[in-house]
Each structure stands twice: as C-alpha cells, then as structure tokens.
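Lab manual, section 2.4: Encoding a predicted structure.

Procedure: take the sequence of the chain (265 residues), apply the prediction step described in section 2.3, and record the output as structure tokens. A sample record is shown.
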Amino acid sequence: MKEIRKANGTYPDEESIQGFIKDIYSFLFKDVLSDNKDFFVKSANFKKRFREIISKESNKVNFSTDELVDTFFLDLLSITDQCFEDSRAILAFDPATDSISEITHTYPGFYAIAVYRIAHCWWKYGMVYSARIATEYVHSQTGIDIHPGAEIGKSFAIDHGTGIVIGETTVIGDHVKLYQGVTLGALQVGKRYKSDKRHPTIGNYVTIYANATILGGETEIGAGSTIGGNVWLTRSIPPCSLVYHKREVIIKEKGLKNEPINFII
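Recorded output:
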C-alpha cells in the first residue's frame, strides 16, 4: 500500500480509502449475497482493509486499533439503518422513482448521504484525514460537498444534488429535503473562527429549494419552513415560514421587429 509521509505523521494513500468506500457501499446497498459464507468472507476482508487504514491514521484518539475496528462494524449496523431511512424519505417524495433499489443503485444524493454517514462516524473517532478523503471522493463523483463534521438527522433527502455545499458546523434536523445548488455556509471564513459555530442550523421538516444560500452560525431555520429557490438568507426565521425570492418574469408576444433586450448580470 502506498503511503504519504508528512512531518506530523504517516497517512494511507487516497486510493485505499476510496476503494474501501466504493466497495463497502456496494456491499451494504448493492450486492446480493448468496449465503452466510459470502457475508462472513466479505466482512472479514473489510475488517482487514479497515484495520490497514486506521493503522496509518495518525489523528485517531482514545481507541486501540482492535477497539476501533469492533466499534466501527457495530456502528455500521445503525448507519445502514439510517441510510435506509434516508432512502425511504427519498422514495416518499420523489415521483421519479418507484423503488428503494433504484435509489441505492442510481441516486447520487443517496450515495453522498450514505458516505457522509460513514465518514461522520470516522470523524467522531478522530479519523479526520480518512473522513475528509471519503467525503471529498464522493464530492468528486457527485458534485455534492458534505463536510464529515456536519450533524445531520434522520430521513435526510437530497434531490439531484449537484452543487450542494454543507459546511463543517452545520446542524440539520430530521426529515429535511435539499435540492441542487443549496449552500449551507459560513459568513466568516477567517482562521480565528475555527472553533466557532460558523454554519446554520436547519430545523425538522424543512425543505430548501434549488440554489438557496443560507449563511452564518447564528442563523436558524425554524421547523416546518420552506425556503424557495435562489433565496439568500443570513438571519434566522421562525417555524413554518415561507421564504421566497421574488423575480419579475415578462412574457410578451414577439413582434415582427425584434426589440433590444437589456441583460443585467
């Protein structure tokens, strides 16, 4: 296995983590195992590969390698359950799909959520480098950028998803839906803000439509709210709010002679 050596530690190369993520996702959500023997053989293989990854992860804290392997594969059971809750949430609102299998096999939003949940688990263990590699790998595959430090509740749904950005200190409640291009970001980006909550808090049952931008660690979106497309928010809103961007669209019959159009960029 290739290694990257740095002044403060030895790290596994990106390919080993990316391969692990790709294969364990298929194992959990795509593979059809013929019998228990297949399951145990594959499980043993994944444990061996995970052991190799964490042995080179210099950021891990408070766990021995054996404890970390056992803890992760126990946590993986609840992670898988959470992911299937996410898939059911997508199935419930998206008219473009008729099955969980279609979602787990073809939906980039579900893929990004599932890998985030694995990476978030690693983040909590202190496996910062491995967690970042995992989410950045999925970012490159889907265009969805979820920081592994973000806190995301159950039944989370992403539709389309390209261009979504969810920052490190974002907190998202249960039953939240996001569309493509949504940014949950920070107002301040200076290094002195590193230990602060820089990203917004999204309440339960909130829907945020395409290209909305919500910024700031003190910004809270009240439960049950709907945020329309292209909205820019830097302040809190109460529960059950409807926020939308008003834009005038003019439709008129085109005459024989073309009229000049003023473009405002």
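Check your result against the sample. The chain has a mean pLDDT of 90.
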